[in-house]
Amino acid sequence: KFFLNNFQNISEEKTKLYITRQNSSYRKILNESDVIKLFKKNNFQIVNPSNYEIKEQINLFSKADIVVSPTGSNLANIIFCRKGTKIYEIAPDFKHSYENNLSIRYQKISEINDLDYYKIIGNSVDVKTHSKIAKKFFSKKILEESSYYKNIIVKISDLTKYLN
């Protein structure tokens, strides 16, 4: 409530955001150059939240009319979005029961904050080398089978359909 009351009315400006995960170990969009071309053509701002201070992130998300992002912690910033903001999560196809909570968390945040949520399923692509942190905390089996620890290729036609 604090954030909604103190940041949402900063500006009537509305923006469209594409959130990149280009520097991440997992769930990167492998065909992101094509994705970015599409979004730039449609007046989206390309954002890597890790390059912004928290107040700047709050400001970016509170002005957003549309947010498109691969699944990941940057999507937690949707808590700062205005009611009715369209959220498009690009996600892998989660196939295992232990992935259930991962697959619905941003949908649940959207429901709580009265945001319009959509999920775009991309194709999972194996990651050849896992991060040291992931290897330390997760079994080899989970790292190999879970879609959460893979990258994504998204169909441009799917994105175009949602943009229209």
Explain briefly what this protein structure is.
This protein has helices at residues 2-7, 32-41, 54-63, 100-112, 132-137, 140-145, 156-163; strands at residues 15-19, 45-47, 64-70, 86-91, 116-121, 123-125, 151-153. It has 164 residues and is of the alpha/beta class. The strands form 2 sheets. A 5-stranded parallel β-sheet has the order 2-1-3-4-5, sandwiched between helices.
What are the main properties of this structure?
164 residues, alpha/beta
From the N-terminal CA to the C-terminal CA, the straight-line distance is 33 Å
* Secondary structure: helix percent: 25-40%
pLDDT < 50 stretches? none
* Beta-strand content estimate: 15-25%
Mean of the pLDDT scores?
90
* Major sheet details: 5 strands, parallel
Number of strands: 7
The number of distinct helices, counting runs of at least 4 residues, comes to 7
Structural class label: alpha/beta
Q: What coarse outline follows from CA principal-axis ratios?
A: globular
Widest beta sheet: strand line-up: 2-1-3-4-5
**Secondary-structure element series:** HEHEHEEHEEHHEH
Radius of gyration: 16 Å
